[in-house]
Structure formats: C-alpha cells, structure tokens
Design goal:
185 residues; alpha+beta; 2 domains; four-stranded antiparallel beta sheet; 8 helices; 4 strands; 20% strand
C-alpha cells in the first residue's frame, strides 16, 4: 500500500490481514461462509477454480498477479469491520489530526507559487472529510486517501478562514516523507 493507507491502518486497525495467499483465501472463504460462487465472483475467477483452491488441487499462491491483488483488496475490505467501525465513530466524535512532512505546492487563479517545497505540517482534519478517509481505507484506495488528506491540509493550513483570494487555491501534496494520523486530544 501507500504511506497514507499504511498510516491509517497502523492507527485504526489492531492487526494486519493474513500475510500468505492461502491465509487470505481462507479468510475470504470464512467471510463468505464457504460459498464458492460468491468467492469466485469477488475474485473474478470461475467457481470451479475456487473449488480447486479449496480442495488443494490448485495452489492459490501460484495464481496470476491480478488475482492475488484482487484477493488482497477483497480481504482488506472485510478485515476487522467492528474495529474499523469503532475507530470511525471515535474519530467522528473526537476528530483526527494529521502530521506529515511532504512536498507542498499550490496554484491559484492563473498563478503559481514558487517551486513546491518540503513542509512539516500538523493539522486537524475537517470533520466532513473523516467518513471519506475511512471509506478510502476500507477500499484500500491510496490515491483517494491522498486527495482527502491534501484537501484537509489545504483547508486547515493554506485556506485560512476569512482570507481573501484563497477560494480557488489548489494544493499539490506529493513526495510524502512520513505521515501519522491520530485522534485529537
């Protein structure tokens, strides 16, 4: 995964998904209560292929990379739903902040600023972005998570309230050195 999703996982999950392809496959089978048709649909393979994986006639770890990637994404979606739900509820209640060191640049209405530069920021995330951030975590969508964090940092740091001329300010968020996420105190 990427740095944003990894930071979210490290703070809001208690354990990682299984490491081996077999372990991931077994977790998906448990989630679908042994229904090979549902597992086949989620993985984009035939039901017969899933039955072969179950019997051991075919080794899931030797599948095509696309199937293994899909397996990882599908298992991640279902991983620790109660832990994530509790973390999301607490984040909505208390709020979260992001600390990062990354390259920031910005453009506004026909102008650009200096070259983007490394900045270290610690800012609270706007409350309305928290559900979207958890949705990106659920789906393992690094690009979406980066966009949401960039938007939150832009609102809180670059677009200060009651400041003239910042409505059209677009913030670039790249070259993430590190990123940490935690509940507000």
């Amino acid at each position: 995964m990427g740095k944003v999703i990894d930071a979210l996982k490290s703070r809001f999950q208690t354990r990682d998904i299984p490491k081996t392809a077999r372990g991931r496959f077994n977790a998906l089978m448990r989630k679908e209560k042994g229904d090979t048709a549902k597992v086949a649909e989620r993985l984009g393979v035939s039901r017969r292929a899933v039955q072969r994986y179950v019997k051991g006639d075919r080794d899931i770890s030797k599948s095509k990379p696309e199937i293994l990637d899909r397996l990882e994404k599908e298992v991640s979606k279902d991983h620790q739903p109660r832990v994530r739900a509790k973390a999301e509820a607490e984040a909505k209640e208390r709020g979260i902040y992001v600390e990062t060191r990354a390259r920031f640049g910005f453009t506004s209405a026909g102008q650009t600023t200096d070259d983007p530069r490394i900045r270290r920021l610690t800012e609270d995330m706007p409350e309305d972005l928290i559900p979207d951030l958890f949705e990106a975590l659920r789906n393992g969508n690094e690009d979406k998570a980066e966009q949401i964090v960039a938007e939150g940092l832009a609102r809180e740091y670059f677009r200060l309230p009651d400041t003239e001329g910042v409505r059209g300010l677009d913030v670039e968020f790249t070259d993430i050195d590190y990123l940490e996420v935690d509940y507000q105190r």
